[in-house]
């Protein structure tokens, strides 16, 4: 059964969803538009820029557990507010960089800012505020921030054309200070008082098995590897399967709407069930699309994109709701950091590893790998026990 929406959560969801859209658009989705002009000015290959970005993702993974522990202790409002300043500093560093190494250093600052300000930090903030009732707010912010690439890529492209890549970075930095920081600081409630935090920490059902942590870590690592691989290579994969270049681009454009549609379904219909049910269904989306692509080739490009996008959209929510449902809100932030570290590391390696496999062994081998990972993740989710949620916690916030 779904939890009642906590009092005041709509305001928090809108604020966090908007701030998350800004954070993702100005960091994770930035290289797709600005990597080429950066590389051209510095006389380096775009691979150099993407390598610096991958290093930032590695730092994100390594810093995640410490960020989560800090949010567990002090609440998320301060961390999210500080993330806007760190992301702004990194973007200013990019905009003012004078060569490849200063550019790489700026990306590392952005990596730290991403660890402090992307989904994991927002999810931990909501878990600290609302306990098990955070499932709805978590879904809500992913519904809004699901449009980060839809908003971020065109805005970055317009800024690039108007003021150049340096001006684009500085403009994104200004938005963090003028928009993101006030949203996180003024509209996100502070951490609950100590007695309320203690009550939230005790909201746990039957103790999960010792395998729960490694099983969930594997599920998230497998699905995030696939998400990273598809983000980098989807058009090339579809063309290698027989789709035309135009059809591959058109199919890729369906992923964003498919993700949002699936999140709407999770918010409505699937919200009535345990998050494990949603995750088990979602993780089968990519394999079903892969089978269609292998059997029918290019004409199935759109079907593959939609099925993959829908599964990926719900798994983004599951990254926040599954640990909450299985373990409860106590220690949620630190646990999120630990569960997310392998996933982030594999996500950073996915574009190179999957690209080499696709180029060297072909479509069938590449899709066999991703399908096997998804089916293994589904098996892991079937092994996990669905711990029933207890009564909704007392409402927090206004």
Q: Choose one word for the global shape.
A: globular
Into how many domains do the coordinates divide?
A: 2
CATH homologous superfamily heading of the largest domain: MFS general substrate transporter like domains
The assigned CATH architecture of the largest domain is Up-down Bundle
Structure description:
The protein has 398 residues and is mostly helical. It folds into two domains: 9-201, MFS general substrate transporter like domains (Growth Hormone, Chain: A), CATH 1.20.1250.20; 212-383, Up-down Bundle (Growth Hormone, Chain: A). It is 79% helix and 0% strand. The chain is built from 17 helices and no strands. It has helices at 9-25, 31-42, 46-74, 77-96, 100-117, 119-130, 135-145, 148-187, 194-201, 212-240, 245-252, 255-268, 275-282, 285-296, 301-327, 332-361, 363-383. The chain is globular and about 55 Å long. It starts with 8 loop residues before the first helix and ends in a 15-residue tail after the last helix. Mean pLDDT is 86; it is low at 389-398.
Summarize the structure.
Helix content is 79%, strand content 0%. The chain has 398 residues and is mainly α. The protein folds into two domains: 193 residues, Growth Hormone, Chain: A (Up-down Bundle), CATH 1.20.1250; 172 residues, MFS general substrate transporter like domains (Growth Hormone, Chain: A, Up-down Bundle).
């Amino acid at each position: 059964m779904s939890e009642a929406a906590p009092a005041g959560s709509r305001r928090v969801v809108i604020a966090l969803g908007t701030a998350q859209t800004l954070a993702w658009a100005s960091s994770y989705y930035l290289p797709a538009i600005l990597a080429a002009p950066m590389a051209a000015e510095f006389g380096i290959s775009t691979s150099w820029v993407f390598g610096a970005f991958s290093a930032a993702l590695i730092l994100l993974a390594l810093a995640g557990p410490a960020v989560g522990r800090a949010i567990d202790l002090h609440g998320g409002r301060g961390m999210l507010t500080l993330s806007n300043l760190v992301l702004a500093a990194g973007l200013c560093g990019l905009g003012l960089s004078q060569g490849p190494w200063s550019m790489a250093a700026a990306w590392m600052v952005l990596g730290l800012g991403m660890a402090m300000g992307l989904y994991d930090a927002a999810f931990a903030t909501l878990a600290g505020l609302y306990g098990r009732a955070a499932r709805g707010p978590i879904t809500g912010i992913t519904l809004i921030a699901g449009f980060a690439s839809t908003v971020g890529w065109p805005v970055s492209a317009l800024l690039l054309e108007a003021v150049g890549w340096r001006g684009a970075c500085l403009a994104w930095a200004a938005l963090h200070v003028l928009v993101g920081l006030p949203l996180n600081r003024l509209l996100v409630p502070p951490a609950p008082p100590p007695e309320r935090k203690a009550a939230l920490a005790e909201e746990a059902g039957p103790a999960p098995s010792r395998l729960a942590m490694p099983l969930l870590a594997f599920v998230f690592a497998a699905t995030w590897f696939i998400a990273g691989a598809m983000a980098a290579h989807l058009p090339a994969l579809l063309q290698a399967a027989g789709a035309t270049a135009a059809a591959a681009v058109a199919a890729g454009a369906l992923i964003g709407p498919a993700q949002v549609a699936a999140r709407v379904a999770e918010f409505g219909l699937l919200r009535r069930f345990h998050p494990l049910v949603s995750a088990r269904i979602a993780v089968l989306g990519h394999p079903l699309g892969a089978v269609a692509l292998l059997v029918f080739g290019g004409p199935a490009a759109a079907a593959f994109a939609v099925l993959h996008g829908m599964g990926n959209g719900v798994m983004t929510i599951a990254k926040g709701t599954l640990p909450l449902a299985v373990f409860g809100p106590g220690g949620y932030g630190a646990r999120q950091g630990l569960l997310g570290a392998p996933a982030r590391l594999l996500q950073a390696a996915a574009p190179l590893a999957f690209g080499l496999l696709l180029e060297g062994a072909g479509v069938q081998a590449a899709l066999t790998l991703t399908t096997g990972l998804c089916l293994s993740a589904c098996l892991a989710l079937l092994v996990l026990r669905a711990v029933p949620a207890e009564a909704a916690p007392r409402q927090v916030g206004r």
